[in-house]
């Protein structure tokens, strides 16, 4: 496995890069905008294909690098479904898995620092975001923070992991890089409390100053969505109402780019073809099923995904590959549902 921990000294943020092999798919957790070039340099050096980028929560102390990584690599941005960010390509819920080639992370909803905080468990380690830090815990006094919820997240979820589980937080201000669940249970001063009330009392009396980047970072991190208007200006977008009226037409085929678990959880458009975004290049290339479909039958391909981000990127790629009938549903299945489009489970 390839595992790298990057440090941004301005915000004391740790960013993680994971991949199962050189030349394979990679994933990044909590990228910092100013460090994006460094991540991409390593991605190139190790011949990796960045396919997903996760933010553990909406950060207040740095601007996320997710949107720029998406724009530069066409990777999928991932956050919890509770997030207040405008558009994230894939929103996950407690217990769902985030998969890339050779690796699988389990999402654990751990609110408290913010109401959109997630931790991610992978084999022998857990990425705890700002929920559990090394000998500390994330503050709970803004961004819908809640000390009571954090107590529950830490004591009833994270500390239930095996003691030897490695703890990789999103920050460290003292120079530590990794800990274990056992160590934190024993030596984290914030966790030596007898009750939830005692923890709430402790957290509510920290009297911390706001992070210096907060006024910049929070608004920036709320607007990370891909601008789909460019695709629309090129005439490659259909609005949900129009898409609904096109359903059932013989010359049209709907193509669902989402992953299996997203389809299972949110439903799909009846009769749609399933061709996950991860296999897009293969499918639109010569000999690929979408290429053949467009060439041989002249069918109009209408891509869709959850919110229109993956499909917007897919349209551009398909057009570049010569599939001139490719378009997408602006706003994805989320917009389709809002327009009362028919669904199948
Ligand atoms: Fe944070």
Secondary structure blueprint with pairings:
Elements: E1 2-8, E2 13-19, E3 25-29, H1 36-45, E4 49-54, H2 66-73, E5 76-80, E6 90-92, E7 97-100, E8 103-109, E9 118-122, E10 125-129, E11 132-133, E12 136-137, H3 147-156, E13 166-169, E14 179-180, H4 181-187, H5 196-203, H6 214-222, H7 229-233, E15 237-238, H8 240-246, E16 252-256, H9 260-266, E17 273-274, H10 280-284, H11 289-297, E18 300-304, H12 309-320, E19 327-329, H13 332-338
Parallel strand pairs: 3-4, 4-5, 5-6, 10-13, 15-19, 16-17, 16-18, 18-19
Antiparallel strand pairs: 1-2, 2-3, 7-8, 8-9, 9-10, 11-12, 13-14
Helix pairs in contact: 3-5, 8-13
Fe (iii) ion binds at residues 57, 59-60, 113, 130, 138.
In short:
The protein is α/β, with parallel strands linked by helices. 30% of the residues lie in helices and 23% in strands.
């Amino acid at each position: 496995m390839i595992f790298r921990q990057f440090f941004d000294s301005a915000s004391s943020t740790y960013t993680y890069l994971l991949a199962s092999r050189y030349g394979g798919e990679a994933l990044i957790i909590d990228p910092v905008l100013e460090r994006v070039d460094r991540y991409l340099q390593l991605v190139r050096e190790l011949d990796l294909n960045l396919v997903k980028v996760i933010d553990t929560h909406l950060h207040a102390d740095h601007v996320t690098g997710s949107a720029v990584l998406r724009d530069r690599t066409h990777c999928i941005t991932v956050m919890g479904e509770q997030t207040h960010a405008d558009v994230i390509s894939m929103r996950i819920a407690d217990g769902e898995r985030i998969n890339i080639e050779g690796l699988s992370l389990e999402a654990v909803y751990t609110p408290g620092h913010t109401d959109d905080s997630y931790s991610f468990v992978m084999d022998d380690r857990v990425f705890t975001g700002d929920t559990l830090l090394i000998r500390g815990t994330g503050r709970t006094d803004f961004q819908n923070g809640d000390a009571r919820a954090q107590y529950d997240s830490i004591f009833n979820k994270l500390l239930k992991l095996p003691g030897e589980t490695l703890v990789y937080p999103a920050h460290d201000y003292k120079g530590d890089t990794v800990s274990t669940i056992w160590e934190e249970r024993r030596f984290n001063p914030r966790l030596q409390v007898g009750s939830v009330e005692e923890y709430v009392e402790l957290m509510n009396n920290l009297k911390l100053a706001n992070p210096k980047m907060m006024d910049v970072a929070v608004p920036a991190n709320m607007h990370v969505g891909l601008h789909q208007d460019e695709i629309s200006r090129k005439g490659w977008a259909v609005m949900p109402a129009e898409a609904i009226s096109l359903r059932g037409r013989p010359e049209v085929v709907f193509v669902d780019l989402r992953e299996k678990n997203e389809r299972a959880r949110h439903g799909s458009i009846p009769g749609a073809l399933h061709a996950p975004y991860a296999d897009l290049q293969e499918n639109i290339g010569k000999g690929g099923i979408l290429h053949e479909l467009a060439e041989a039958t002249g069918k109009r391909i209408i891509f869709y995904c959850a919110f229109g981000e993956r499909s917007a990127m897919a349209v551009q790629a398909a057009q570049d590959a010569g599939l001139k009938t490719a378009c997408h549903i602006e706003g994805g299945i989320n917009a389709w549902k809002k327009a009362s489009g028919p669904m199948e489970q």
